[in-house]
Every structure is written in structure tokens, then in C-alpha cells.
Write a structure and sequence with these properties.
Helix content is about 35%, strand content about 25%. By secondary structure, it is α/β, with parallel strands linked by helices.
């Protein structure tokens, strides 16, 4: 596989000193090292406050690291400054899909306007070219061309999630970071969305960094699994290896909780 992203020594420290007469709370994440290959899905799992979402935001540049380097498409970025060492726009190669798609959609503008904004800000495409790209992207995520005229309240939960996916795809990135993208969907829509992502991955050669508490979906779609606890990667490996032969106590705890919900499945 072709390597798309390499993360080296990513480190974040946060100290909460605002609590009166209490010791400051310090949360440290890292150092994190990981590699993402073309067409690969990496799942990040762990309990709440393990640092999963924070790591995702650091990878896309939404939160600055204190130390570390990110190499994306062979270009090096100082993760602490979120600034490339070359003249290059990293945000076009890696995009994020958030958990609550409705909260990320402005109710006062149409789907077409939502998708047009990143194209206007990040490309030199003409209005006609942007419209063509938008319509093509809507089709790829299973929506209609006429959905460009729709507002948020006119869309179902599943359609809103597809719009969120379209917004992430419209700049034709190489890596998508998805933070619990299925949590708010009912099971039938969730299944459709998962299958849609797998189809897009096959067609476009996309890589996914996927954060989820749903280990059933993780086992279904992930090539590799990273287990986090208290801001640290405590175990990582191929998906089936992690599920069949977990080594770390946290990994065993997560797998046992998952297995208790699906007792008909055997790990060995």
C-alpha cells in the first residue's frame, strides 16, 4: 500500500487551572506515532476521555499540538504550528466528518451553498465547474442533483449525514476522519451509510480514520485498530488480531463488553 500519512511524536498537554482551591487537572495526549496507507481504514477505540476525538482534531489541524510532525502526501507539517514547510494546503487532502451532522449544517442556507463554500475558498474552479463538482459529489453519496436546493429541515437524518459526507468529499481528499459518524442514526440508516462509505472507499481509494464505540462496525470495516487509554496508544494491530487475541487490559475490557452484546460470535 502507498503511504499517505505519517505521524511522529504528536504531543498535546492541557492544564485546567480555573478551579478554585483545587489542583489543576492535566491531560496529556501522546506521544502518538501512526501511519495511514492508501485505501486503508484505521479505527480508534477506547473509553470516554481517552483522547480519541482530540487526536482526530489534531490530525486535521483543528487543534494545534505542542510537539510533533505530520507528513501528509510526502509534505511535512509542523503540527504544533499547523503550518506546512512548503506552500501547500493540507486541508484539501484530509477532511473530517463530525458526529452530529445537523449541528454542522447552517439551517439558513441550501445544501448547494454549503457545498459551494469550501470550493470557493480552496479552489480556483469557476461557478460552472463548482456546480458540476457539487452535483457529482451528491450523486456519489446517494443524493439527487435537486438536493442542492434543499434546506436542513427538508432532509432526513440519513440525508443530513450524506450531506456531511458530501461536504467532506467535495474537495476530493485522500483521507477522511470520521468521529462517531453513525452514532445518531437508526440501525437501518446506519447500515446503508456504512455500505456507502465502503463503496466510496473502493471507487476513490479513500483512507479512513474512524472513531467509534460500536465495535461491531469497527470489526466490519477496519483494517487496523488502535486502542487508546488516558491519551496513550496502549495497543494496535490488525483488526482480527485485536478482536481474537487482545493483549492490553483496556483492549480486553472493550472486547469483553462487545462480546457480551453478541454472545453468538466466537473470538476463537
Amino acid at each position: 500500500m502507498k503511504e499517505l500519512m505519517q505521524v511522529k511524536g504528536l504531543l498535546f498537554r492541557h492544564s485546567d487551572t480555573k478551579r478554585w482551591l483545587k489542583k489543576p487537572e492535566v491531560f496529556a495526549l501522546g506521544p502518538i506515532d501512526l501511519t495511514v496507507n492508501r485505501g486503508e481504514t484505521i479505527a480508534i477505540i477506547g473509553e470516554n476521555r481517552a483522547g480519541k476525538s482530540l487526536l482526530a482534531k489534531m490530525l486535521v489541524g483543528a487543534v494545534a499540538a505542542d510537539e510533533g510532525e505530520i507528513y501528509l502526501s510526502n509534505v511535512s507539517y509542523n503540527a504544533a504550528k499547523r503550518k506546512s514547510t512548503k506552500s501547500y494546503n493540507s486541508s484539501n487532502d484530509i477532511r473530517m466528518i463530525f458526529q452530529h451532522s445537523s449541528e454542522a449544517m447552517n439551517p439558513g442556507i441550501t445544501v448547494g451553498m454549503i457545498l459551494d463554500e469550501p470550493l470557493r475558498l480552496n479552489t480556483r474552479l469557476s461557478e460552472k465547474e463548482r456546480r458540476s463538482r457539487i452535483e457529482e459529489t451528491l450523486r456519489k453519496v446517494g443524493l439527487l442533483r435537486d438536493h442542492v436546493y434543499f434546506y436542513r429541515h427538508m432532509l432526513s437524518d440519513g440525508q443530513q449525514q450524506r450531506v456531511a459526507l458530501a461536504r467532506a468529499l467535495v474537495l476530493q481528499p485522500k483521507i477522511l476522519v470520521a468521529d462517531e459518524p453513525f452514532a445518531a442514526l437508526d440501525p437501518s440508516i446506519r447500515s446503508q451509510t456504512v455500505n456507502q462509505l465502503l463503496t466510496l472507499q473502493k471507487e476513490l481509494g479513500l483512507s479512513f480514520i474512524f472513531i467509534s464505540h460500536n465495535l461491531g462496525i469497527v470489526r466490519h470495516i477496519a483494517d487496523k485498530v488502535i486502542v487508546m487509554e488516558n491519551g496513550q496508544i496502549v495497543e494496535s494491530g490488525k483488526t482480527e488480531t485485536i478482536f481474537r487475541w487482545p493483549q492490553h487490559a483496556m483492549t480486553k475490557k472493550l472486547i469483553m463488553a462487545y462480546q457480551s452484546l453478541v454472545p453468538q460470535q466466537k473470538l476463537n
